Amino acid sequence: MKITVLGATGQTGQYLVNQALQQGHTVTAVVRNPAKLTVHHDNLKVVTADIFSPDSLKPHFKGQDVIMSCLGFPASVFSAVTGYTQSMAAMVSAMREARVNRIITMTSWYTEPNSGSQSPFLIRFLLLPMIRSVLSNMYEMEQLLQKTDDVNWTVVRPPGLKNNEATAQEFLTHGGYFVPPSSGDSVSGSVGRGDVARFMLSLLNSNAWVKQGVAMTTK
Predict the structure, then answer these.
(1) pLDDT by residue (tens digit) across 35-66?
(2) Does domain 2-218 have CATH number 3.40.50.720?
(3) Which of 16, 137, 163, 167 is buried most deeply by CB count within 10 Å?
């Protein structure tokens, strides 16, 4: 497929670009700083664009089969995080103009404000308050997509991210804001970035989770 990747120089984005190329896809990587992307491949085109501008994104969306976003924005204590909603609004607008209707993006477990109430003590009282500004804007972005009828979107929600290569481990998924423990299966509260990329790419050949959010991890 022809894939445009945003956030391609980020830690998860680099795994996604590499795996997509290995699977034979043609990748357009939208980056701010091309020097940060160390991959070179005949099927890789690296372009610079303003992720908050539909006009800047549109030329790089034209003729593509799918948009994949691994964009991340840092937590802020003193001001609201807005990057997720602002970039997604620009992407959806550019997709409409370029006539592309499939997007796969990633957020996190526990974006919905009350979903962390069952999480372990340290996560609930230490980690979630620290990243609440990020989770809140991720949740607003998810809400924005839910109101977008003309785009086939999927939001992938991984738990804590580790800088690990893809494994062959089985995925556990749940159509909610985290993966609950199921009988006999222990659920990992962290996952390798390589496996997140592998899961995102697995959605290209399937209609599973279209217009839905899916929490995922590995066994």
Answers:
(1) 999 899 999 999 999 999 999 999 999 999 99
(2) yes
(3) 16
